Amino acid sequence: MNYKDAVIYQIYPRSFADSNGDGIGDLPGIASKLDYLAELGVDILWLSPIFDSPNADNGYDVSDYEAIMPEFGTMADFDNLLAGVHQRGMRLILDLVVNHSSDEHRWFQESRKSKDNPYRDYYIWRTPKLTADGPAEPNNWQSIFSGPAWAFDETTGEYYLHLFATKQPDLNWEHPPLREAIYKMMRFWLDKGVDGFRMDVIPFLSKDQTFPDYPAGRYGDSSVHANGPRIHEFLQEMNHEVLSRYGRAGEGCVSIGEGIGVTAELANLYVGKDRHELNMIYHFDHAVPREEYRFVDPAPEFTVLELKAIFAKWNLALDSIDPATQATGGWQNIYFGNHDNPRCISRFGDPERYPYESATMLATVLLTQRGTPNIYQGDEIGMTNCAFDTIDEYNDIQVKNAWQALITQGEHSPEVFLATANQIARDHARTPMQWSDAPNAGFTTGQPWLKINHNYQTINVSQQEATPRSVLHYYQKLLRWRKQTLAIHEGTYSDLLPDHPSLWVFERTLNNVTFYTVANFSGDFVVIPVIQGVSLSDNQLVLANLPNQTDTLQPFEARIYERKKTGISDE
Ligand code: GLC
Ligand code: CA
């Protein structure tokens, strides 16, 4: 199967399934759920980081890229998991976190010892800037997790760069031995049979070596760090040295870039057919904005009008030719939820009044879009945001650091902060998977590392397995249908009603076969539209989340039609 035809399922290992009662999800836990995942009908499993780590950022701070985090198990557990995935005809991809490592990585331990240590240039060190007020940070860059992006290190009297936490020093991709060490590590996993990588903040790898201050008007804007001058050279080298040598001829192993700071206009430079860089990229245009100040001044949620505009723009951009490079025909990876965003049903649906309807409506839209979709763990049962009552109930370093800056050291209202965090924090996606109504949602027999959502007795896998009309059964059905429907994999995309304030109606066409997705993104009743003089409902209904056959869509109703030869836009 081509990566364009696949469906990806993202696992956050810490929160998926705990096999030994220590309250932390682990690899044997994942292995015990492989039948569940195969039955769901997904093709590729993406594991968030499983490598040894002090967990400053839950594994996105790697201290040994070739060792398994002891809390998650052993290398034998990993080999067993990989074999189990392959036996079931699925593929496994790992999270490649190589913009930065942990400060506890051996390379950094060496690097900070002296200026002439062989590992010094594995990281980005700069002398203090001399100002009227004394020595200061080399420039004004800010960490995405609050405060300056430079940390002073006493031993050698220099600053190192960390675009994330101080415990996540940025690796220096300008230094060839570092790049070779990373490629070697990638080969280690691919030689084991791993099928590819999701690549963390990949556009950050190359930095402007003059380290200029933020441009005027963009202070603290993290996209400034993206798309540096040598990024495409580095990715082409990585592709040549590693990616192209594995997987399928012509497409290499699976490679997905986390496209932070990548605009639609730049996308084909990363994924265009003749670029020899990555298979796919996913963008941040509909991610929840979460700069530090957002915790007291949240952005309004995206409306369906905005979502449609974003998806249309990306589809158009990927299908176009880049005028400068002629790069063409790139592919994207699409998502509504992941471990860095609140739950999609809480953002775009109505989990209180329409839990089944809104979860299945979102599934219908995501899984019939053009692009390789990611299902985030728990979305297939409609898991929701969690009510966190105090700052201590959170785990995420981003929320903790923002609290420290805005509340402990700042003068903002703790009530406002807590109310906002209950909308935007990343921990909403990280509460343990809800397997059953047993204590701790069947996730662990011990004390879970993060709060379990209070609603686990009504929203859980076993309950939905036993209920014919459930979000889970709808996902299974939709995925089975999708698998054999080529037009949904690679057909063209066109938004039929970009200006409709509550419906998302789009067409997918391949070789004269056309499907229409009609989705009601609102809690209102909406009359099914007539397009070019023909009612959509005159086409052949293939799938729907509600039994309703009338011409009025119910709240969050979604339907998929196949065009009848006598239907609309028939030539
Ligand atoms: C990516 C990850 C996020 C992590 C950050 C730093 O955005 O998805 O979870 O905190 O990179 O590694
Ligand atoms: Ca465990």
From TrEMBL:
<dbReference type="InterPro" id="IPR006047">
    <property type="entry name" value="GH13_cat_dom"/>
</dbReference>
<comment type="similarity">
    <text>Belongs to the glycosyl hydrolase 13 family.</text>
</comment>
<feature type="domain" description="Glycosyl hydrolase family 13 catalytic">
    <location>
        <begin position="10"/>
        <end position="430"/>
    </location>
</feature>
<dbReference type="InterPro" id="IPR017853">
    <property type="entry name" value="GH"/>
</dbReference>
<keyword id="KW-0378">Hydrolase</keyword>
<dbReference type="GO" id="GO:0009313">
    <property type="term" value="P:oligosaccharide catabolic process"/>
</dbReference>
<dbReference type="Pfam" id="PF00128">
    <property type="entry name" value="Alpha-amylase"/>
</dbReference>
<dbReference type="GO" id="GO:0004556">
    <property type="term" value="F:alpha-amylase activity"/>
</dbReference>
<protein>
    <submittedName>
        <fullName>Alpha amylase catalytic region</fullName>
    </submittedName>
</protein>
<dbReference type="InterPro" id="IPR013780">
    <property type="entry name" value="Glyco_hydro_b"/>
</dbReference>
<keyword id="KW-0326">Glycosidase</keyword>
<dbReference type="InterPro" id="IPR045857">
    <property type="entry name" value="O16G_dom_2"/>
</dbReference>
